[in-house]
Design goal:
It contains 9 helices and 6 strands. Among the domains are: 46 residues, no CATH class; 101 residues, VSR Endonuclease (Endonuclease, Chain A, 3-Layer(aba) Sandwich), CATH 3.40.960. Helix content is 57%, strand content 10%. The chain has 278 residues and is of the alpha+beta class. The strands form 2 sheets. Strands 3-4-5-6 form a 4-stranded mixed β-sheet, sandwiched between helices. Strands 1-2 form a two-stranded antiparallel ribbon. The radius of gyration is 29 Å and the shape is elongated.
């Protein structure tokens, strides 16, 4: 009987001070503690919260003062919002640490850059709202110049414009957003950190993908028919013009890209990395 009472008493003992819990308070994790310990724990947590808030405030100011607001805004608009992965956040964290020499605790990093992004996004929306209010008869005006395809100058709506900027870093109509294999190769290279340009202009024509640091153009094509005179002549003329800028052109078959996308992207990344060494 004595052992049973002891076991019963232990259930209602404060895990912090071991007092019997005739009254208790519950912490966030569900732990029951005596009122005195609860008050002490809350004071400690408040101190930590105030200290953390001050840290976040100081680091936010440091990033803004360094002029990194636009970089952070573009990160959320072009990378993180569509593909929210922790490795992308770590990549930005390392970039800011190594290139801009700003040390930030990783546990607080996402909270800090999220705050900067939200403030910048709201500011841009208010500026756009103000501009619309100051424009006379906005409903009867022509679409702004930026809402047009960078290649054919065809007008595009705001949604297409913004989606294209996020994906390709330039405004493109649906017709000039390429084929599925064209896009897949571009995104695969971009994901691997290869600096690529979609629908690059070489001074004569637009090429599907350009890697300027390698002086390489990639053309994604259907069936490559070397015995067709028309196709042969067009390729010869285009490649000759390309060679004037010391660029090489690599032509890739749609079916080949579809089957070997990852291996192809890995190979091009390896070539790019090796070029950085020399």
């Amino acid at each position: 009987m004595k052992d049973k009472f002891k076991k019963f008493d232990n259930i209602f003992n404060c895990p912090r001070c071991n007092k019997t819990l005739w009254q208790y308070s519950i912490l966030k994790d569900g732990t029951k503690v005596c009122p005195e310990c609860y008050e002490l724990i809350m004071k400690e947590e408040n101190k930590k919260s105030v200290k953390n808030d001050e840290y976040v405030k100081n680091k936010t100011k440091e990033l803004v003062d360094k002029g990194l607001s636009e970089l952070i805004y573009n990160f959320f608009e072009r990378v993180y919002s569509d593909n929210p992965k922790e490795d992308e956040v770590k990549k930005l964290w390392k970039l800011i640490k190594m290139k801009h020499n700003i040390e930030i605790e990783y546990d607080s990093f996402l909270k800090i850059i999220s705050g900067i992004y939200e403030e910048d996004r709201e500011k841009k929306e208010l500026e756009s709202f103000e501009q619309n209010l100051m424009t006379e008869n906005p409903s009867t005006e022509e679409p702004p110049d930026e809402y047009q395809c960078a290649i054919c100058k065809k007008p595009i709506d705001k949604q297409t414009h913004e989606a294209s900027i996020r994906s390709f870093n330039k405004a493109l109509c649906e017709e000039h957003q390429g084929t599925e294999n064209h896009r897949n190769l571009f995104f695969a290279l971009k994901k691997r950190g290869v600096p690529v340009e979609f629908e690059a202009y070489d001074g004569y024509k637009h090429v599907d993908i350009a890697i300027h640091e390698l002086k390489l153009y990639i053309e994604v094509e259907g069936t490559l028919n070397a015995i067709d005179p028309g196709q042969f002549f067009d390729q010869l003329r285009n490649d000759n013009f390309t060679s004037q800028g010391n660029y090489q052109t690599k032509r890739l078959n749609n079916d080949f890209i579809s089957v070997h996308l990852d291996q192809l992207a890995d190979t091009i990344k390896e070539v790019y990395l090796k070029s950085k060494v020399f």
